[in-house]
Structures
1.
Amino acid sequence: MKAVRTLRFGMSPCPNDTFLFHALLHGRVATPGVRFEPVIEDVESLNERMLRGELEVTKASFAAFARARETYAACRTGGALGRGNGPLVVASRPMKPHELGPLKIALPGGLTTAALLFGLFHPECSDTPSLRYDELPDAVANGRCDAAVIIHEHRFTYRERGLHAVEDLGQRWEALTRLPVPLGGVFVRRDVDAQLARSVERWIGESFAFARANPDASRDFVRKHAQELADGVTEQHIALYVNEFSAGYGKVGEDAIRRLLLTAAASGAAPRSATPVFVGDE
């Protein structure tokens, strides 16, 4: 009997990940000779593990990938790209973006695309501690920081905590580039056999297709891991972050990713690299 290879698969507990990857992790996609072992952690923990090269396959921020490009290649499927779904800056009182300079602005991790965009648009802000993404709304509401860059499902719930939107960083990126915002993607470590890496990319696309065709199949898995349990919130989250780019980036998505990588390098947030970006491009 042929041995089965185990690939550790890093993913966040957010509804878009649990919805999209449920089929892959629960035998609804045929992956001959391979089983996936889920490693479920917050996005910044996955980013840090990516920089250490720990996981064979992982979801992570594209900003982190900009620093780990020699170790990982990007799949063209399974990512979170889009328009109107970028990080938001929120505060406990109404304010304008130009007022942020002297304030304490909490970030969801220094390796996130949210942090990269905030640094790009607000180089004047120097007091930017990192907190786990799910702690950010309460940190602002409780006065631990003056404002925060929020991501994931908190985009839909910050008003319930009495917070005010200051700026949409994704909107600024789209206005600057005319491209969607590349938030997170799936990456395969470069020491994984090239043929297997291409299979992983295809299987993720099949997992997406199954999720779209069978939206109720993952309901229990999504609810088990979601930070916000209201069905309306998880449905909004999935609808916004699991979109046509999750099935395949296409030229527009690939252009957006390359633009973000170039921006990270130009800003000094990542080294310049000539290493091919995508699986199969070597």
2.
Amino acid sequence: MLTMPEPSQREDAIAQIRALIAAGSYVPGDRLPPERELIDHLGMSRTTLRKALEALEREGTIWRHVGKGTFVAGHGGNGSSGSFTKLSRQLTPVRMIQARLCIEPALAREAAINASAEAIIRMKLARDRAASAPTWADYETHDDLFHRSIAVAADNILLVALFDQLNQVQRAVASGNVVRKSERPPEEHTSFAEHDRIAAAIESRDPTAAQEAMRRHISSVSARLFNEI
């Protein structure tokens, strides 16, 4: 007998699918991988996946056709993806990083203060999946989820919504400016250790260390990808 996924599982699944769409540079009309591949790739049950897809279809992010598959819709659930695309075209990578530096270190600080035990477990799981990702697309999906898990751990729904909007724009900016030279992140990829330090500071309930670790991480990403900041 199938059991209904818990709300937290469903929300996590929705976030994972959104991150997959963003990291994979899907555009309206593109077909997503079949359910079996999504289950294996995202590590979730079929029930949880289907409930997440139903929610995304209701909000207009995807549409499904029996016998043909699941497709990215022409607009997001709030009808704002067009405005995000327009905004991303007006932003330089350095401006994008400056926005992240204003917001994400503060989120890490709040997460160190407010994170529940469950939120910390989910953050560490996303960190570990990013570190073991077999491709850059997989890494970017789980990197998104790691950063989002920190926003969720801050325990403020408005901050999560703000992060989601910021992340949509930053992925659009990065997709046109980042060129990968390998199939997957190398074992010495600096973000792995940086993620470890962020997670450790949050788990240790050290808001100052968490804020500084996130600031250093974002600055490091900027220097590596864009030679800025």
3.
Amino acid sequence: MNGQGRLDGRNLFLFFILTFAWSWILWLPEVLWGFRLYLAPFGPTVSAFVLTYINEGLSGTKALLRRGLDFRFKRVWFVPIFLLMPTIVGLSLLLAILSGESVPSMPFLSQPFIVIPAFFYIFFLGGPLAEEFGWRGYALDRLQIRYNAFISSIILGILWGLWHLPLFFMKGQDIYRSVPIWGFILGTVFLSILFTWIYNNTGRSILAVLLFHTMSNLAHFIFPAMATEFGGLYSVLLNVATVIIILIVCGAKRMICE
């Protein structure tokens, strides 16, 4: 391995250490006393910018930031960015209802305009901005230097899932308590593959995965499939089917559909 490869490997290891340390330490007060520190989820993004500044200076930091505004990709990719996850989660809820489950509370039906403020809240404070500059914009790039897109996605998906572990021990985090930890991590692995597919096909646009992450979380707000007994299972199965189609059509090496 050349010098640059060793440097990337070391920085990748440091990224995960800093990310987990930042978030888990700042999540600890909420786990123990219910006191929320809203900067806790920003571990991935903070770590990415810190390491980028240390190793690449101000120019590298600006370049990373610009990729969060990069919409210079084929417009057709806005279709999966905005519609794929709502379709998967919506179908999961529909299948759960058709299986005989009762319809959960869906505020969106009576107040459809709440989707707009919900979108912006999720974008800025619900995960995407806190995570994607790190998971995809920093870690995924370095993983794909060593491994193909599929293997990189699996590795990142496992670590992404493990990073969420403190949330399973917090009050009010019902969406995490509704699934076993192993099931949640399995879900983040398959979701990670979808994120890589979006990221690689949009020219490594962080904006694309910011929007995709937002729509993924928003889909669960609009269609509360996880509030049903089998909605989570149907969601995993539909994610698996989608991943299989992507791997067949685009291949595991780069997952780029040419």
4.
Amino acid sequence: MKTVLIIGASSKIASETAKIFAEKNYKIILSGRDLQKLDSVKKDILAYYPQSFIENHIIDILNYNSHKEFLNQIISQYGEIDIVLIAYGTLANQKLIENDFEKIKKEFEINLLSIISLTTIFAEYFEKMKKGTIAVISSVAGDRGRQSNFIYGTSKGAVSIYLQGLRNCLYKSNVQVLTIKPGFVDTPMTADINKNFLFAQAKDIAIGIVKAIENKKDIVYLPSFWRLIMFIIKIIPEKIFKRLSL
């Protein structure tokens, strides 16, 4: 039985992904900062798959010094980890934080620095084993800076570039590094955004994530049409792009 560790497991995308892993008979370790929310996710999965092995663990993603001990604790209790999915993030209102450095810094600590801390530790672990998967949810917002969310987009863009380098570094060690780039998804994170036809459901994103892991993909846009959309956005000349209201 393979083991998947999901960090940020109470997010809608993560919980839907966990259900798919449960269906596939994975041992599932759910982690996050709120035990009550993790328990709710666990109960929901067990309602569908009552025979599943699921455990919950608290993690403080901003306590970087605790990350190594967190991994050691998981390994000592449950044995070898096969897949790590990092699925947390924050999407602040751009207008409310763009003139407040402390709030901007907090966004980068959550969306970037904590992920670098965790993936550095997991990369070392998988490199020694010569196998494993590190999958991280980034965003299409990181493909180009836009006035509506360039702080969020910058943090996600940095994550994507970091993962690209890590992928290159771990290739010879047979470690998969998957960058997941969802577009708009109907989740609590986007509750304040008016929905349109571009919004996908979390369950569909979860299906794409598991498929990308199983097919050893490097980068996946979800839904797939976002690859074309972002290609078009990226090739717009800057002298034109800077005039657009996006």
